[in-house]
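Students often ask why we bother encoding 3D structure as a string. The short answer is that it lets us treat folding as translation between two languages. Here is a chain of 315 residues written in the first language.
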Amino acid sequence: MTELRHKVKNALDEARTLILCAQVLLGFQFRAFFEQRFEALPPATRALEVAGLGFLLVATVLLFMPAAFHRIVETGEDTDRLHKFATSVMCWALLPFSIAFGIDSFVAGESVLGRVGGTWAGIGITLLTLIFWYGPQLLARKSEQGDTQMNEKESESKLNTKIEQVLTEIRMVLPGVQGLRGVQMGAVMMQSFEKLPDSSKQLHFGGLLLIVLSAIFLMTPPAYHRLVNRGENTERFHSFASQMLIAAMVSLPLGISADVFVVVRKFSQSLEWSIAAALASLSMAWALWFGVTLARKSKDSNEQRHRLSEARASV
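And here it is in the second language, the structure alphabet:
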């Protein structure tokens, strides 16, 4: 069993991960009402923006509750009741998050693809968040029951450290993802966005969806840890969180390069330079994040095999 202090720390860290996401989105939602194109939106879309703001406020208020509970009720002590409370709160907070994601995707999609395209984008993103955050996690809970017993045979402190580190790495990437998402959503509301060619608008919206996908990947490990493991540290969770982090780092450069194309095209009016800049940004990110690291991993594996073969030969 994972020690209570580690379970509480992870719960608070995961709440912090979700709060980082909520703060950026909340800032955009408030700003959207003061953008030039807001008044030009259809009345139903403006009402949806208000609803989206309301859902994000609910999620934000819920995510601050564990801190208040810890200080006021438990007076700073780590207790099972605090851990269960934080887990329950985060599970409920994910629902308004998913609805807000869908509303924002609809608003952006409507500006680019029309009412029907925006509706499908909003529904698709909402369903995607629900699938990632609630679906497989609930189905996988039974298969997770044996993991905590296995962990008693391995170094619990080592596993706790690995999980704390992967959660920290997720928090390193998430603010950048959410900041980009806020800027991309804000751009849709600006007057100059209407002057872009249709192809640039569509590419911008595609980049926005890729950034949203990255955010969904990064918010999935806290949901999995709460819904499936109930806060227990397992090797399977560490592996799953690592996979989600890598998946987010695959889709993130695609979203960035799409907007690099749009910006360079607006600046230079050159299709060739825009494509070159987008490919350069994508290649740089993937080469440094995956090319260098995979090459190093391959080198380490070869060296390890070489040492093993030398050891066997000496025997």
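Translate back mentally: The chain has two domains: 4-252, 270-315. Keep this in mind for the problem set.
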